Amino acid sequence: MLKLKGFLTRIGRTFRSRKFEHEMAEEMQFHVEAETELRVARGEDPVTASRRAKAMFGSIDARTEEVRERRLLAAWDSVGQDMRFALRMMQKSPGFTLVAVITLALGIGANTAIFSAVDAVLLRPLPYPDPDRLISVHETGANRNRNSVSGAAYKDWRDYQTHFEATTIYTNDYFDLTGFNQPEKISTLSVSHEFGEVFGLSPLRGRDFVLADEVVGGQNNVVILTELFWHTRFGGEDSAIGKTLTIDGTPFEIIGVYPSQIWHQTNVEIFIPHVLAVGTYQASHHVHRGSVIGRLKTGASLEAAVAELNAVKQDRNDTYPDFKQNWGVGARPFQLALAERSGPFLLILLGAVSLVLMIACANVANLLLARTNARQREIALRSALGASGNRIMRQVITESLILALLGGLVGIIFAELGLNLFTHLSSGMLPATMPPQLDLRVLTFSLIASCGTGLIFGIIPAWKSQRTDLNQALKSNSGGTTDGSRNRSQSTLIIAEVALTTVLLIGTGFLVKDMVRTVTTAPGFNPNNVLMFDLTPPYSGRYNEPNARMQFLDQVRAEIEAVPGVIKVATADDLPFGNDGQGYYYSLEEEPETRTDRTGRIKYVSQNYFETLGGNIVKGRSILPQDNTTGAAKVMVINQVMAQTLFAADEDPIGRLINANNEPWEIVGIAADMRIDNLHSEPSATFFVPHWEFPWYSTFMVRTVGDPSALTKSISAAVHRFDPNLPLDQLQPLAQAMADSLGPQKLMLRLIGAFASTALLLACIGFYGVMSYAVVNRRRELSIRMALGAAGNDLIRLVIGGGARLLGWGLLVGLVLSALATFGLNSHLPNINKLDPLIVLTTVMTLAGVTVGACWFPARRATRANPIEALRAE
Amino acid sequence: MAKDRSDLLQGTLDMLILKALQLQPMHGFGISVRIRQISEDVLRVEQGSLYPALYRLEEQGWITSDWGVSENNRKAKFYEITKLGRKQLTQETANWERLSLAVNQILGAKREDLG
């Protein structure tokens, strides 16, 4: 207890050294004065007494300086000693140091790289003032699903809410920009005037939007540029303000420039006002294309705000159409909304990569344990010479920390390389204005990870080293002892390594299985030799009404069909694998009570759609030219999924009526399911209706005789013969888009696969190391066995048996962990719900093969040794 | 194995300080005077080594310190021996006695006792 007080006193003095020094000086001053008084009392004269007393004591300053120096020296000395000793040890065994540092560098570097991605997407605060107050608000459908926002709903929220400082609605729109080199399609964000206010950012130049820009009949034709657009097209000149851009044939005045951090989608080039004109689709209850962000008032709660918006909706329910009677309002933080798609996957990656780091730690710990064994005598000697157990422990930990920090440093280089690769492979999959980078936060993480790693792998060897049995160690005449407990530590570490490797291998197995399934599943159409592009004419000018647009589509189609090499042409409202799509509630016409039970995907298609894509009509007919005319009956072709949902196996859907978008449609055909949006998931219930019903978006699919890219020029020329101002957007072969859609899945597989391979390699090295070491230790025993007649094979079997036991335990623990992880991750990866026996078997065989290999070489070396020599060497 | 000379002196000084404090708490000057008294002026503590020794003993928990008022009403830091310190003193004293007994026996052995 008193020792504790003494210890605390020491700590206290370190921190409050100035106070302590002051006290010291006071104390010594008292001493000198007391000595003076004593002399005076003995008869000396005061002046001489004082002089002599001071002389005896010496300068007080010098004395205090001495005390200070001694304490400092002692402290520095021991730390310095530890560090010098550690560095000397590391120099003496360069091989060990190199292996340890590289192992750690791999683990720490990989973690740093993945962490920087996690940081960028999930942790780094958004580049807005008070970003936590930014909330994404959405409508919720009858089954609580998230839905985009309709203008009418937004208006209600905007007018009646009290919890937000400001709200804004925006939509992604594409328009034609002319006036630069050639006509091009640009991505724009139509925003309400509160946009800048909600995000808390003002324009760099010019002015922000105001209410007058947004009202019907107001100065709607104004535009704010993004910083990038301003720099690339106008050279960043102030004179850009006031100039005009021709968008969809209409002049728009440039009124300002927004800072680049205001919006995360880097493809968005300009901002235009979002006009909620009554009677237009923007303000209706039926079109849901908007996203809404609100800035909460300081201190307002999200729950209260959402509750209020729901109450508002209920109050005004009579203004909502029938199908939205049971709809509601939901909200979540904006940062969460942005992170949603990639967040869970990044976290899984981080989990996987930390397993690799743990395996690396286990390996280095084993290395250190083996070395501690070898240094038994030295440690025992030092103990006998007076080094306390603590001191020895401290030395091992110092060594571990130095190794770990070195590993961390080299790891940063690996991280930089890895990050470049990762960014390259994952382009487009992460939110764009938050690129992962090795900034201060990430480097701090790296430092903490290094220190943590050092402590983790250092603690076991350090603990073991100070528990050395001195007598045993000094007496022993071999280089090391067969300390049972130390071998047990090594065995435990190996079992842990095998277990973690098992988890990673099984994870990889799942991803491989998934990928194989995705790639080998027939897509339901023929993606080869099809060129596709978006050709959506502007909404103003000659294309501003449906008939004109349909005519345009027919004419362009005919023009393209005339190009040599073109077999068939079809149009649709969106591109395959386009991440776009519209949906409606659908139900049997004669069952009005089920109106809002199910939603289905709607595709507006021209005649020849299925024929061009190579899809199959299994019953009835496809869409025909006569369906695409004014006054034609409303017909639809449904896919098999929808047919199975609505009808029993023996019913014939042809001729039946489906209610969608509040009107009845007659089923004229059933199409085989096509995985045209997404190769990975099951196709959803889809109905195909004539393009004429919604000619506002148009894309073209052209089947060609040979390589579709070869006809790019002639097809573009055909279109431009008709109208030279129309850009062909997102032009590429369908096969290309299909391959790209597998991007995220491929990336995940590659990364987890890389981690699993690294883990396997590390575990293999670790196993080999531990087995070799164990064999060396048991040299005596093995030699005796050989001398007593055991054959080489028996010994090998003995050693491998030992290794197999470790493997067995490791696999068992690993399989249990994998099963747990499977249940845990089920929500994110719905295809994984139980351990596939094939994957388990493959994993077990891989690890078994590796283990046997790792055991075999050391075992063989043991049998090679001459038993007599081995015994004599003892 | 033998400690080197400074260690020996260090150990001795520690014991002298503890002995001086055995009866009552004292300030640094008082301790130095007392040591001169007990050793009948044979041992004079080098002033420079007294205070470092006191600080060290305090950190080891053998003595504690506190500010107080001296005989002539001045502020001074007083030191007091702790239970741990007393135990240490008893042990070391026992060691010394054993050592000196052994030395005496060797030195006092009659010529006939040696072979």
Summarize the structure.
Chain A is α+β, with helices and mostly antiparallel strands and 874 residues long.
Walkthrough of the structure:
The complex is a heterodimer of chains A (874) and B (115). Chain A has 874 residues and is α+β, with helices and mostly antiparallel strands. Helices cover 54% and strands 16% of the residues of chain A. Chain A has 27 helices and 23 strands. In chain A, the strands form three sheets. A six-stranded mixed β-barrel of chain A has the order 4-5-10-7-9-8. In chain A, strands 15-16-21-18-20-19 form a six-stranded mixed β-barrel. Chain A has a four-stranded antiparallel beta sheet with strand order 14-22-13-23. In chain A, helix 5 (94-123) packs antiparallel against helix 12. The longest helix of chain A has 37 residues, at 389-425. Chain A is globular and about 125 Å long. Chain B is of the alpha+beta class and 115 residues long. Chain B has a three-stranded antiparallel beta sheet. In chain B, helix 1 (5-21) packs across helix 2 (28-38) and helix 1 (5-21) packs across helix 3 (47-60). Chain B is elongated. Mean pLDDT of chain B is 78; it is low at 1-8. The interface between A and B is medium-sized, with 29 and 26 residues.
Low-confidence stretches of chain B at least 5 residues in length (pLDDT < 50)?
Answer: 1-8
**How do the strands line up in the largest sheet of chain B?**
1-3-2
The proportion of strand residues of chain A reads: 15-25%
Terminal residue distance of chain A: 48 Å
Rg of chain A is: 38 Å
Helix content of chain B: 55-70%
Q: Keywords, please?
A:
heterodimer, A: 874 residues, alpha+beta, six-stranded mixed beta barrel, 27 helices, 23 strands, globular, B: 115 residues, three-stranded antiparallel β-sheet, 4 helices, elongated, disordered N terminus
Topology summary:
The complex is a heterodimer of chains A (874) and B (115).
Chain A: H1 2-15, H2 17-41, H3 46-57, H4 60-92, H5 94-123, E1 134-140, E2 146-147, E3 149-150, H6 151-160, E4 164-178, E5 184-191, H7 195-199, E6 205-206, H8 211-214, E7 222-226, H9 227-234, E8 244-247, E9 250-258, E10 268-273, E11 288-296, H10 302-315, E12 328-333, H11 334-339, H12 343-374, H13 376-384, H14 389-425, H15 440-466, H16 470-475, H17 484-520, E13 530-534, H18 546-561, E14 566-572, E15 582-588, E16 598-605, H19 609-613, E17 617-620, E18 635-639, H20 640-646, E19 657-660, E20 663-671, E21 686-690, E22 699-704, H21 712-722, E23 729-733, H22 734-741, H23 743-777, H24 779-787, H25 792-824, H26 837-864, H27 867-873
Chain B: H1 5-21, E1 26-27, H2 28-38, H3 47-60, E2 63-69, E3 75-81, H4 83-107
Antiparallel strand pairs in B: 1-3, 2-3
Helix pairs in contact in B: 1-2, 1-3
